[in-house]
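Example 4.3 (complexes with small molecules)
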Amino acid sequence: MTEEAGARCAVIIVAAGSGERLGQGMPKARVPLGGSTMLAHAVNGVVKAGIAGQICIAVPAGDQEMVELCGELAAAHAEQPDLVWNVVDGGADRTASVRAALAMVGPDISTVLVHDAARPLTPTGVFERVVAALRDGAKAVIPALAVVDTIKTVVPAEFPATGAGVEKVSGTPARSRLRAVQTPQGFELETLRRAHAYAATLVPAEAAQITDDAMLVEAMGGDVFVVQGSTHSLKITTPMDLLLADAMLQGPLRPRWVEG
Ligand code: CTP
Ligand code: MG
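Answer. The structure with magnesium ion bound is encoded below.
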């Protein structure tokens, strides 16, 4: 990764969620993980990947503790004086948090990666694959993994005898063509800006369906390319995910940073 390439890429880290499902009584990004915090792992992973010229972190609005944590993390990387840091108040949903961070992206930036603080163990190789795809001309790129479970679609239904409300299978998509999507998701800056301008036109019911930025590009008819993700990029959503991530940091998988 050259300095020149790094200088044109901004990484947005969305860390403004409340972490309801993790249930730790604090925003998820502040939750302890492997001796530090989830946010520290996410930020250090981005810096270590060497692809960022700017890092914009969206934190819960008014969360001073998180702002201070971001300041400490920036100070810990003073060895990279050209790296620009921004901390912004996030919004009510992930899309709003990305939009707030996007407003901070500098004029020298041509590509943007959007990364969940909730995927703190994402290896360098994933960042590199996403950036390489952008350099190869992709305007939107996502890391993803093949799905191991068989996935069904369902519709509301009733048991014939009792009328009890249940779900009924309506279809089984071919598993070979299904992918589980991760972050960081990479975009040409203008494509991401247009995607978020489009998001602002959605009615609330439509906006509630948007779970990542790639969906916005898809909805605009843009091509979204796929690169290989990593099992180490697991998203920490529930207490079991946190247990697994902690175990990864203590166990034989600890040298995760060298994973491709
Ligand atoms: N996120 C954000 N702003 C929001 C909501 C989510 O920046 N208003 C971020 C989270 O901080 C997280 C990522 O988007 O890094 C994925 O969201 P999720 O895993 O749902 O995290 P939380 O919203 O914090 O968790 P929960 O839904 O259980 O409350
Ligand atoms: Mg959430």
